[in-house]
Amino acid sequence: MKNKSIYVTSPLLPPLEDFTLLLKEIWNSKTLTNNGNFHQLLEKELCSYLKIPYLSLFTNGTLPLIVALQALRITGEVITTPYSFVATTHSLWWNGIKPVFVDIDPITCNLDPNKIEAAITPLTTAIMPVHVYGHPCDTEQIQKIADKYGLKVIYDAAHAFGVETAGKSILEHGDMATLSFHATKVYNTIEGGALICHDEQTKKRIDYLKNFGFAGETTIVAPGINGKMDEVRAAFGLLSLKMVDRAIQSRQEIALQYQAGLEAASGITCMKGIGDTKLNYSYFPIFVDADQYGMTRDELYCKMKEKNIFGRRYFYPLISNFSTYKGLNSAKPENLPNATKIANSVICLPIYDGLKQEEVASIINLIIEK
Ligand SMILES: *Cc1c(COP(=O)(O)O)cnc(C)c1O
User: Fold this and answer.
1) Distance (Å, whole) CA 197 – CA 199
2) Which of 5, 196, 225, 322 could be disulfide-bonded to 177 (CB atoms 3.0-4.6 Å)?
3) Domains in the chain and their CATH numbers?
């Protein structure tokens, strides 16, 4: 146990024998990509699993963000959160759109709806929030603001696979939502992602855009990109979809063990779900109050590392602190006090299907004993 390294996550892998059988089918069919059978089947099965009518598969979770902005013809300025993975803001940059950072709510870690209106200018065309750690944004409040100012809403739902509020998919909210199926996520296709929209016409447009803009053999309807998922990864995804419920359940058990074990730890706060939400336990963030705990976040992070436990400081640094963005007015730390504080206190603890009870217990002990 002492020498075994424990990482923040470990990928969900389908049985190799099952995958080999599907690979044989692919070899026989000689269809490797371009909307093959496995691709079509996975789109269908994901729609049914996620309880949504329209989903387009992509080769990763960044391209759906870029394509969503294209599909909705977003320009000018977009209001977004600094507390996310860089891909969220990069997708704006790749479209020549100016990101405008707005602070987060200190409890949910999501874009604070009460601060959005003050950041709206005549150039604002959309809001791009993130359901951080799979915890839902205040979708109602955000939609109200969007309606009032005629803005589009694109949710980066990369962390929110399978998350539901009041029995409904979180992906139903906004004009579009995106998913990532990267190896580190709750559900993975090795690399992969998806774009969720709400009508057939839009789905068609998205499918053109992810295939260079081809709407027929000789017709190009838009300057599209290549975002297509191949048959090998779609087959992998079909197999891992069968395992994801069990994986989420075992993540939930780990989350409960952490929560109970860390309850008494002074200066350590765990994130808890709020309201009627079915979470996916994609991450287990804790927040370190250095004064109370008697050790800074980075000291704890390093101490864990010395014991071969590799938590991750998601999300530190803030996106607004990276060189590309830090010159923007909205990137100033004074504008983002909650995000700055959270980024300096967070560690995501290891959580994945296959992490053993005694391993979780030893991580809890390490944190409590200091
Ligand atoms: C993982 C992630 C992405 C990017 O997904 P890729 O599949 O790695 O391209 C985008 N946004 C957030 C919030 C993510 O965590």
Assistant:
1) 6
2) 196
3) 16-239 (3.40.640.10), 243-368 (3.90.1150.10)
**To 5 degrees, how large is the angle CA 340–CA 343–CA 347?**
160
Tokens of residue 307, six digits = 């014991």
What is the C-alpha separation between 260 and 256, in angstroms, rounded? 6
Q: What is the pLDDT of residues 266-291, one digit of tens each?
A: 999 999 877 889 999 999 999 999 99
d(CA 93, CA 362): 42
What amino acid occupies position 121?
T
Nearest CA to ligand 1 atom 6: 61
Place of tokens 């939609």: 143
pLDDT band of residue 204 (cuts 50, 70, 90) is very high
Residues of the chain with pLDDT > 70, as a percent, come to: 99
Q: How confident is the model at residue 1 (pLDDT cuts 50, 70, 90)?
A: very low
| Cα-to-centroid distance, 132 and ligand 1 (Å) | 11
Sequence-ordered list of residues with C-beta below 8 angstroms from that of 231, at least 6 positions apart, any chain = 26, 29, 31, 32, 33, 36, 37, 38, 39
Average pLDDT of the residues in 339-350? 98
- pLDDT of 233 > 50? The answer is yes
Q: What local confidence, expressed as pLDDT, does residue 313 receive?
A: 97
Instruction: Give the separation between CA 318 and CA 340, rounded to whole angstroms.
Output: 7
| Mutational test site, ligand 1, from 85, 178, 314, max ligand atoms within 8 Å of CB | 85
pLDDT at 275: 80
What residues are in contact with ligand 1 under a 6 Å CB criterion? 60-62, 84-85, 87-88, 130, 156, 158-159, 180, 182, 193
Residue 51 Cα to ligand 1 middle (Å): 22
Contacts 24+ apart (CB under 8 A), 16-20: 18/239, 19/235, 19/236, 19/239
Average pLDDT, the chain: 97
User: Which is the closest atom of ligand 1 to the Cα of 87?
Assistant: 10
